[in-house]
Design brief:
By secondary structure, the chain is mainly alpha-helical. The protein is about 70% helix and about 0% strand. Bound molecules: fe (ii) ion (2 copies).
């Protein structure tokens, strides 16, 4: 990223996140004691994922001066915060991961490192990770349908999934042909996300 020469305006390229599907959505009231343990693990993993997402954009904001990237990070962060608030409403502290400090730090690094390398790197990481998160939520929605088909929870997961798809498309639009290094970093970020979810299901 070049902090000296101003970034040319990208006319017609949307940098604001689209309105969130979660607007107006109330968190479902779940009887957590009645949920299968598998479902609790899944909710914990997604609560971690949304925590990492909010912190990722904080990491980006702290590591760039690129105005377009800052706008991108701020608008996506707002949507991720909505997701996080929903999962916080569903999952009390006692049911959350015991490694919250670690997850927040991981998110900061996951945003801060690519932001230091340049906007291309952030867009590639966000496009890759959000596309993977789409699949993660799709799997979770299947699991909920099979194990605990609560309509409110399904609506919430589907709304989050819809937003993540938009995030992936936003990022891919901003950088349709990322350099090799950015693609490699995105693959690494997806691999780490996969590991992170596996860990968050356990602790
Ligand atoms: Fe999210
Ligand atoms: Fe997202």
């Amino acid at each position: 990223m070049d902090a000296v020469s101003p970034t040319p305006p990208t006319e017609g390229v949307p940098t604001e996140a689209p309105p969130s599907e979660t607007i107006g959505l109330a968190p479902p009231r779940l009887d957590l004691d009645a949920l299968p343990p598998r479902m609790l693990r899944e909710l914990r993993a997604s609560h971690v994922g949304e925590t990492v997402a909010v912190n990722l954009y904080d990491g980006v904001a702290g590591a760039t001066t690129d105005p377009e990237l800052l706008r991108f990070a701020a608008s996506h962060r707002l949507v991720e915060l909505r997701h996080l608030r929903l999962f916080e409403a569903v999952l009390p502290h006692a049911r959350r991961s015991r490694l919250m400090g670690f997850w927040r730090l991981s998110g900061r690094l996951m945003g801060g490192l690519p932001a230091r390398l340049g906007p291309d790197y952030v867009y590639a990481v966000v496009a890759g990770v959000e596309s993977w998160v789409d699949g993660h939520y799709a799997g979770q929605i299947d699991t909920v349908r099979r194990l605990a088909p609560d309509p409110g929870l399904l609506r919430m997961l589907e709304a989050c999934r819809h937003d993540e798809i938009q995030h992936s498309l936003d990022a891919a639009r901003l950088d349709p042909a990322p350099p090799w290094g950015a693609r490699a970093l995105a693959r690494l970020a997806v691999g780490l996300s996969r590991l992170g979810v596996a860990l968050a299901r356990r602790v």
